[in-house]
Amino acid sequence: MKVALGCDHAAFEGKEELKKYLETKFEVLDEGTYSDERCDYPDFASKVAKRVVEEKIPGILLCGSGIGVSIVANRYRGVRAALVRTPEEARLSRQHNDANVLCLGARINSDAEIREMVDAWFEAEFEGGRHTDRLAKFANLGEVF
Question: Please, what are the domains in the chain?
Answer without folding.
Answer: 2-136 (3.40.1400.10)
